[in-house]
UniProtKB/TrEMBL annotation:
Family: Belongs to the NDK family.
The protein's name: Nucleoside diphosphate kinase
Species, as recorded: Caulobacter ginsengisoli
Binding sites annotated in the UniProt record for ATP: 9, 57, 85, 91, 102, 112
Localization: Cytoplasm
Main location: cytoplasm
Name of the top EC class for this enzyme: transferase
InterPro entries (UniProt xref): NDK-like_dom, NDK-like_dom_sf, Nucleoside_diP_kinase
HAMAP family: NDP_kinase (MF_00451)
EC number: 2.7.4.6
Signal peptide start and end residues: none
Organism lineage: Bacteria, Pseudomonadati, Pseudomonadota, Alphaproteobacteria, Caulobacterales
Domain Nucleoside diphosphate kinase-like: 1-138
Its biological purpose: Major role in the synthesis of nucleoside triphosphates other than ATP. The ATP gamma phosphate is transferred to the NDP beta phosphate via a ping-pong mechanism, using a phosphorylated active-site intermediate.
């Protein structure tokens, strides 16, 4: 079993879709073993997306992620990192497969409803940014 880090982004909370997204996550066999609703500060968002800081959309991305509350999650399951990337669908919802979260709910490449870690190594780093061990209950 493996853990990954997930964020239900502001476009999900604004449209009251957190339960609908969680239903897709759970139907895919991933367990939500940690979950908290927070409003990210600018510093938190900049740190979280630091790898993208040279990209032209970085400012827009930080503004989006701090616009409304988000739900941060720890998901657990077999091959959770790869499995969740599958369930999320392509970054650009226009390219996302049928039945994926981004195909079902996302509005644009920027406002694409969810984040999921891209490796087990990054998952551990990202989980540690938002959760202590006591707040993850498997
Ligand atoms: P994450 O799970 O959020 O990391 O998405 P990803 O791994 O599918 O995409 P990537 O890491 O390449 O980009 C991170 C995030 O930046 C995306 O999820 C989008 O929210 C945003 N992003 C990526 N490309 C663009 C773009 O061209 N324009 C805008 N506005 N945002 C973008
Ligand atoms: Mg990414």
């Amino acid at each position: 079993t493996e853990r990954t880090f997930s964020i239900l982004k502001p476009d999900a909370t604004e449209r009251n879709l957190t339960g609908a997204v969680n239903a897709v996550i759970e139907a895919a066999g991933l367990r939500i073993v940690g979950q908290r609703r927070i409003h990210m500060s600018q510093a938190q968002a900049e740190k979280f997306y630091e790898v993208h800081k040279e990209r032209p959309f970085f400012g827009e991305l930080v503004e989006f992620m701090t616009r409304s509350p988000v739900v941060v999650q720890v998901l657990e399951g077999d091959n959770a990192v790869a499995r969740y990337r599958e369930v999320m669908g392509a970054t650009n919802p226009a390219n996302a497969d049928e039945g994926t979260i981004r195909k079902l709910f996302a509005q644009s490449v920027g406002e694409n409803t969810v984040h999921g870690s891209d490796s087990a190594e990054n998952a551990a780093i990202e989980i540690a940014q938002f959760f202590t061990d006591a707040d993850i209950v498997g």
